[in-house]
């Protein structure tokens, strides 16, 4: 039993499987495309919203340090992703990496985890985009008909038509091809980066030095509350991180980590990259560096414009400009956020379809979904299926409470990938590695520790929901995936390994 659950798929076999004509994706992406994808998915709601929340509740002006801490945790993981993506340039990201190093069952679990992460992330972002669009429409005097607006906080029946339409339109774009997606993403990313730079430059002239005093507010005890509303660490050790102080910075880091969600999506496009050995590390690390720099600058500016205790939670950047007598920037920021969220939504949907495609190509999900479009060379079947499901999910369901599942899913993937780097270095030292994570095993171990630390700072409710989803994943694997796996069929002599481009 254990030998079948932890059977690994050779890297060479994974690469050969990508050459099967009916299951091969088109290679069209460059390092610039990957960097744009990374920036496009990372810069989203987080930079426009989370800054105010953590500054007011956890870190004050030291929110900039929280972004640095979260960025370092992501950078440690990014180094591991870069090695894997350049060594195993196959769709699927952490799922594919786990299959090559940890075995089939861990690969299935991480793939199942990523499907949830990207699905909820896409739906949450689509709902947020709808809210920004409705706000801009109301400023122009237009109002959505009753029952067709945002479902956030609504008790009555309704359907968020804007969120659903966005997902369906982006689904169509992804079906038509990666290059088209890259061109649209490049245009939108240019717009939203311009908005962020304008906010930084304009806000820099409105900074008041007194607002930085104190830079790290004095530590305050956390008020007692329901255990499920407190960080998990309170349940484990009987205490909770304090508001503000040094511990407040780390608590804030676990929250603002949501703003970095997405750089790992770049790795899902490895199979569609012209020169993945060279370009994947550049795209992953380059996009993370750019976004971390912008996040730190934004947090410094907004806490300098307005005292952290007075920042709003819903729209801190826009309201900070209003408070300093520049209300015009509020609409400008809302426009930038709305435009920017379209790329976040599209690239998260892209990541999910590639993971689903890779799992179906390996037989862990029905092989029906692993055939590419004869003209566009995209995985059109899983893209359409998942696009429709997520459109319905975004239209009907208020998703605020489920958003934290995106964080824990991503951190779990980081842990698995870091462990996988260590194992593959031991088991396959002969593999050519265009990029090598430095200081192995120190960097991967630090990545695991950083990710686990952020995970235990998440609410206990998130852990409960995550455990339920994982339990469902085990059930699906043992009822379907374990017996339909292509490795299982090859072990039983029912299928021969790929030998150079033909379909077995």
Q: What's the pLDDT, averaged over the residues?
A: 84
- Unreliable spans: 151-156, 224-241, 500-504
C-alpha-based Rg, rounded? 22 Å
Order of helices and strands: HHHHHHHHHHHHHHHHHHH
User: Count of helical segments?
Assistant: 19
Main β sheet profile: none
| CA(first)-CA(last) distance | 26 Å
Describe this structure in words.
This protein has 504 residues and is an all-alpha fold. The chain contains 19 helices and no strands. The two termini are 26 Å apart.
SSE inventory with pairings:
Blueprint: H1 2-5, H2 11-17, H3 31-42, H4 45-59, H5 63-87, H6 94-101, H7 104-139, H8 161-176, H9 178-204, H10 232-237, H11 245-256, H12 276-305, H13 316-323, H14 328-361, H15 380-396, H16 404-427, H17 442-456, H18 460-484, H19 486-491
Helix pairs in contact: 3-9, 3-12, 3-14, 4-11, 4-12, 5-11, 5-12, 5-16, 5-17, 6-7, 6-16, 7-8, 7-14, 7-15, 7-16, 7-18, 8-14, 8-15, 9-12, 9-14, 13-14, 14-15, 16-17, 16-18
Describe this structure in a few short sentences.
This protein is an all-alpha fold and 504 residues long. It is 65% helix and 0% strand. The longest helix is centred in the first third of the chain and has 36 residues, at 104-139.
Note the main attributes of this structure.
single chain; 504 residues; mainly alpha; globular
